[in-house]
Amino acid sequence: MDLSMSVNSVTISVEGMTCSSCVWTIEQQIGKLNGVHHIKIIINYIFLKFKNI
């Protein structure tokens, strides 16, 4: 098994996001990061899947 290709998940609690514009902006910026496989934000939580690189 090649660990450099494994997919990890993380949930991050975030304070201060109060509108859909905040959610969209963060999804767009984090989605551009190298290795990010999937991102979903629900107001105060970020659910992120990424590949180890």
Number of helical segments with 4 or more residues: 1
Tell me the β content. Answer: 35-45%
At the first level of CATH, what is the class?
Alpha Beta
The overall pLDDT average reads: 83
Query: What is the structural class?
Result: alpha+beta
Q: What share of residues is helical? A: 10-25%
Strand order of the largest sheet: 1-3-2
Number of strands: 3
SSE pattern: EHEE
Q: What's a quick, concise take on this entry?
A:
By secondary structure, the chain is of the alpha+beta class.
What does this structure look like?
- By secondary structure, this protein is α+β, with helices and mostly antiparallel strands.
- The protein has a single domain (3-51), classed as 2-Layer Sandwich (Alpha-Beta Plaits).
- It is 23% helix and 40% strand.
- The chain starts with 6 loop residues before the first strand and ends with a strand.
- The mean pLDDT is 83.
- GO terms for molecular function: metal ion binding.
- It holds the Pfam family HMA.
Labels describing this entry:
1 helix; single chain; three-stranded antiparallel beta sheet; 23% helix; alpha+beta; Alpha-Beta Plaits; 53 residues
Present the secondary structure layout.
Blueprint: E1 7-13, H1 20-31, E2 36-42, E3 45-51
Antiparallel strand pairs: 1-3, 2-3
Organism: Muntiacus muntjak (Barking deer)
GO molecular function, one term: metal ion binding
InterPro entries: HMA_dom, HMA_dom_sf
